TrEMBL record:
Region feature (Disordered): 115-158
Name of the protein in question: Possible WhiB-like transcription factor
Extent of Low complexity compositional bias: 140-152
Limits of the 4Fe-4S Wbl-type domain: 6-74
Biased composition (Polar residues): 126-138
Pfam families in UniProt: Whib (PF02467)
Record field: transmembrane: none
Amino acid sequence: MFLKGECADFPDSWSDRMWGPDDLPNRRTQYELRRAAVRICEACPVRAECLAFGIMVRDQYGIYGGLPLRARRQVLKTAQEAGFRFDPDDPTAEQRLARFIRENPEIVAAARERECKRRKTEQRNARQQRWRATTRSTGKAKAPAAATHTPPLQDTLF
Ligand code: SF4
């Protein structure tokens, strides 16, 4: 990332795993790194600019301005509903979007909230699916927590 933000001084080997597309094989460690990245973004002085940049370049991975992809899409959708014209060829678009984000911090909070709820729902559905699969294969009903041998990962990031 070329903006001078809080992440700028992290070595690439760390920042690629925290904000970038690299995933560690250990899901829990990866989750902790992403969560730490989000916390760092929250205190970043160029957060709005970073988020606008991430939206404009349409990066499908990573964290920009403390938000993962789906939450960034939500911010763009809200901005467009409020009249923002998304045109990647317009050299002023990124600046305009950053200004809109700075002036409307509640849309970032709303996008985070929505993403948080969505992830919780996905996790609940995944647990139920695993439980159903276990129940089908054993013919016995077990409590959902007993159906998996790993503790549930609260992968909400926020
Ligand atoms: S908002 Fe986060 S990813 Fe963006 S420059 Fe700041 S610390 Fe880096």
